[in-house]
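Retro notes, item 3 of 5
We never archived the inputs for the calcium ion complex last cycle. Fixing that now. Sequence and ligand:
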Amino acid sequence: MSGNVLVVEDEQKLASLLADYLKVSGFEPVCLDNGSEVVPYVREHKPDLILLDLMLPGRNGMEVCKDIRTFSRVPIIMVTARIEEIDRLLGLELGADDYICKPFSPREVVARVKAVLRRTHDGQTIQARGLILDEYGYKAILNGHDLELTAVEFKLLQFLVDNPGRIYGRQQLMNKIYPDERNVSDRTIDSHIKKLRRKIETLDPEAKFIQSVYSVGYKFESE
Ligand code: CA
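Structure as it came back at the time:
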């Protein structure tokens, strides 16, 4: 197994120990020691996986994880020094793929990295009639062309594609896309759907994937 692994860890010794183990196992590690450097790095270099320490100078791991999830599904393994933190982190639904508690053996970390990559790799692309969704980059490709969707449009499309033929009301879609927000209007969903359809139909006028069901909501039809 190979790939670029971003190690975010401010304890220098631990970071280089992890990097050594990852290198020996065939990965290409890069280390950062400040939380504020992570998001710009991820946007530019698109690593295959991130090992993210919770307590960091600059910005804490929780904030960084949440921020990354607004634009990428890159696998993230959170690392914390306190086992009791893990329950709290799970409850926050930060969108991390796994959690590791310090102290750990580097061997165990490498095993977890491999397991997460194996598990998440399968879900990387979903195809439906010329449509490929790359959930790590929030990228949707139709007949070989990038639809250039916003993160919200991508999430909407992915949710509908994952549940073909099922009709979803606006409220259901809103809860799915904006889980923490209470004051998003119905019209917001309509407007996202409208833009999404326009992008799809500009590339392929025949691709009427997203259908509206009068007074109920929307569904995805692949046939
Ligand atoms: Ca730390």
